[in-house]
Amino acid sequence: MIFLEYLLIALMVFAALLAVIFEEELISIICLSIFSFALTALYLLYKAPDVALTEAVIGSGLNTAIFMAAISQVRSGRKNHVSREDE
Amino acid sequence: MIYNLVFLLLFMLGFYTILVKKNLIKLVIGLNIMEAATFFWVMALNYREGVIPILKTGSKAAAVVNPLPQALILTGIVIGASTTAFLLTLIIEINKYANVIDLDILKGLRD
User: Fold this and answer.
1) How far apart are CA B19 and CA B14, in angstroms?
2) I need a surface site. Which of B10, B54, B77, B111 has the fewest CB within 10 A?
3) Nearest CA distance, A87 vs chain B (angstrom)
4) What is the pTM of this model?
């Protein structure tokens, strides 16, 4: 129990560090999803299954989805602008 | 003790991201990390030995873990998701107006 807890805490800190140091947004968001997964497992260890369920659905699923939607909007808008200037 | 150190490390990591990074999406990522670090801290400090807090008939109330921080964190996670969605909507609108999400360039576009 103690060993698993420390392992998950180390994974969480490592994933947060990777999410901060990468410049590419997509890799950062995937690392944020891994961070959220480690937090979900920690909530299960702390006897809070309802919070773990919510964190798995919202933190690891919905947050990744809306971040990716925002990035695709930003990138497609930028590409349209450049092509319009070229014409 | 180790929970305080982990909380401080994660919170400072998110704060550093908000202060230093120039990409607006990275700012939202830093805010998410700060939020999750606070929830982890509250949950880890309030844990005590016990069973999952669903009381059956005849079981003693002192045998379960504290359910109050769990309810607070459940609310906080949902509010954090809505805050993230709102900030990302603002970023999409800024990108439609200025076609860039870099803070240094956006400062020059002000006048």
Assistant:
1) 9
2) B111
3) 17
4) 0.87
